[in-house]
Amino acid sequence: MAGRGGMTQRNVVTLAAAVLVLIVSGCTEASPSPSSPVSGSPRPSASGPTGSWTATGGLLEARPDHTATLLQDDRLLVAGGFDPTLGDVFGFVASAQLYDAGTGEWIMTGALHEGRYAHTATLLDDGRVLVAGGVGGNGLLASAELYDPDTGTWTATGSMREARVSHTATLLPDGQVLVAGFFDGGSEGVRMLASAELFDPATDLWTPTASMAQARGLHTATLLNDGRVLVAGGTASDPTSGELYNPISKTWTATRPMVEGRGGHTATLLDNGMVLVVGTGGESAQLYDPVTDAWSLTGAVSGTGPDHTATLLADGRVLVTGGYEGNGDGLAAAQLYDPVTGSWTATAPMLEGRVYHSATLLPDGTLLVAGGSQTIYADSLDELVASAELFHP
Predict the structure, then answer these.
(1) Of residues 329, 286, 287, the one with CA closest to residue 306
(2) How far is CA 45 from CA 53, 103, 106, 345, 362, in A?
C-alpha cells in the first residue's frame, strides 16, 4: 500500500461488495444552515512561538481523506471523506463543514448530494467550489457538484465523461478546470487512464481534451507560472515520466525524466517558479526547473512518510507534515524545506500523529492541519482524528 491512494486501494479492492451496500441512512441528510452556531469550541491562539503548534477547534465530525478548500471569504470548506462507522467498512461522508479562522470554530454547512472520498475540490474564479469524482455508494464516481458559499448549498452539475479516483484537478488561467488520470487498485487488477477533460464553469459542462502520453494515477499536477501544467510521476508504466499540458494548444509534451520515480508524492510550486517534489519517507526530494526542463535532487527528507502533506508558507519555505510509518501508524513529524539553501530542518512535531489529513495555509500566515486518521487502516471510530491544530511559522 503506497502513496495517497493507500485508503482508496484498500477500499476499492472490495468495491464490488460495496456497490451492493446503500449509503447508510442519514449520510446525505440535510445539514444545518451555514450560519448554525456551534458552542464550546476552543478559540485559536492569536499567536504562538515560532515553529510551534497550538490546538484550535476540532472538526464536528472526524474524517480522513477529505478535501479542504480555502474560500474567497477566507473560510475553509472541508467536504466529504471516509468514516468506517457509516456503512460497515465503507463510509462515504456527505457532510461538509466550515472553519472560521477568526473564531477557531467549525459549523456545519450543506451536505453533498453524494457522499465521497478520494475526490478533488477546486476553487473556481467565481467563488464556487467544484467537487469531482472519488469513491461513493455507487462505486467509482463520474459525478460532480458545485458548492455556493453564499447559500451554503451544493448543486449537481454535469458529470465527467469517465469515473475518476486518485486523479488531479487544476484550475487553469482561463478559469477552466483540467482533470487528468485515474487509478483503481481493485480486485480486477490495477486500472489507470491517460484521458483528460475540461470543466467550463460558464456552461457547467465537461469536454474532452488531449490525453496524456501515459496512463497514470496517484500523480501530481502543478500549475506553473507560465500557465502550463506539470504532471509528474504516479503509477504510470514509467514512474519517472513527466508531461506538460499547454492550455492554449491543448496538447501534452514529455518532460525530461525525474531523477527518481515517484507515486503518491506531493508537488509544490515554489516562489522561484520551480516545483518541489517530495516522495515517501526517507527519500530524497527533487526540483523541476521549467526554464531548463531539468530535474535535480535537493536534500533528503527524514521523519515523514507516504500520504504526507506539503504546503508553501508565506515566507517561501515548504512545510511537510505527517504521513505514516512502516507499521501503518500516523506520524506527527514535521519538516521544513528552505529553497534558498536547499536544505531540510526538523521542526516541532504536531500535537497528534495523523495520516489522510489536510493542511491549509490561512490568510494570517498560520497553517491549519485538520482531521485524518491515527492509522492507515481507519477501521474504527477511535482511529479517526477530529482535532485540528495551527502551525506558527
Answers:
(1) 329
(2) 10, 10, 15, 24, 14
- Report H helices in the chain: 6-12, 15-19
* Grid cell digits, residue 104: 477557531
Dist. CA 138–CA 125, nearest whole Å: 30
Considering the domain 6-15+61-392 in this protein, what is its CATH number? Answer: 2.120.10.80
Q: What is the reported pTM?
A: 0.87
Compute the distance between CA of residue 217 and CA of residue 219 in angstroms, rounded to an integer.
5
Backbone torsions φ then ψ of 109, nearest 5 degrees: -130, -175
Q: CA dist 224 to 213, 244, 361, Å?
A: 19, 10, 19
Distances 44 to 99, 178, 190, 295, 372 between C-alpha atoms, Å: 11, 36, 44, 40, 19
Is the separation of the CB atoms in 351 and 48 below 8 Å? Answer: no
33-42 long-range contacts (CB < 8 A, ≥24 apart) are: 33/109, 33/110, 33/152, 34/98, 34/107, 34/109, 34/110, 34/149, 34/151, 34/152, 35/107, 35/152, 36/107, 36/108, 37/107, 38/105, 38/106, 38/107, 41/103, 41/104, 41/105, 41/106, 42/104
The pLDDT of 343-354, averaged and rounded, is 96
Write the secondary structure of 333-353 as one string of H (helix), E (strand) and C (coil): CEEEEECCCCEEEEECCCCCC
Amino acid at 309: T
pLDDT tier at 240, thresholds 50, 70, 90: very high
Of residues 381 and 213, the one with the higher pLDDT is: 213
Cα end-to-end span (Å), the chain:
32
Residue 82 in grid coordinates: 471516509
DSSP β-bridge partners for residue 70: 76
Edge-to-edge order in the sheet of strand 266-269: 266-269, 275-278, 284-289, 294-300
Per-residue 3-state assignment (H helix, E strand, C coil) for 350-368: CCCCEECCEEEECCCCCEE
Per residue in 73-129, pLDDT tens? Answer: 999 999 999 887 664 445 789 999 999 999 999 999 999 999 999 999 999 999 999
Tell me the average pLDDT across 269-274.
98
